[in-house]
Amino acid sequence: MKRFVVEAALWLIWFPFRSVIKRLSMGVNYDIAWVVSFVFYIVSGKTRQGVYDEVRRLFGPQADTKRARRITRRSFDIYIKRQFENLLFGLFTAEQLGRMTDVEGLENIDKSLQKGNGVIMLLDHFGSFLLTI
């Protein structure tokens, strides 16, 4: 039954309300994602326990219970926010991306190439690891 409730809640957010979610700012979406992740954390008892047990195993016998619970809660938050980012990313305009990112050092590429040197470039991502820029 819990699984059905979780699946139904996700369907209600992702499909009927996604057009509304897509029109909201990223800040508001992150706030909504935080609430969704909290609900997901509360209703997903088996998953929550499994993540918690794995965190405890990773840290070993010296694992701090309070810290393991914080990490477990944060993992749910990151997961849901990543889903929101994946949903919204294709809709970003160049202007929105410009407000969200800073590109530094482009002039160094031109200088290096004019001197006949090569360049080493870093391709990084922000948000979901699936959204490599």
Helix content: 55-70%
How would you state the average pLDDT, rounded?
82
Cα shape: flat
Number of strands: 0
SSE ordering: HHHHHHH
Structural class: mainly alpha
Q: What is the CA-atom radius of gyration, in angstroms?
A: 20 Å
Number of helices: 7
- Runs in which pLDDT lies below 50 for 5 or more consecutive residues are none
Task: Describe the protein's architecture and organization.
This protein is mostly helical. It is built from seven helices and no strands. The protein has helices at 2-14, 18-23, 26-43, 45-59, 65-88, 94-100, 106-114. Helix 3 (26-43) packs across helix 5 (65-88). The longest helix has 24 residues, at 65-88. The two termini are 40 Å apart.
Write a short abstract of this structure:
The chain has 133 residues and is an all-alpha fold. It is built from seven helices and no strands.
SSE map:
Layout: H1 2-14, H2 18-23, H3 26-43, H4 45-59, H5 65-88, H6 94-100, H7 106-114
Helix pairs in contact: 3-5, 4-5
Structural key phrases:
mainly alpha, 133 residues, single chain
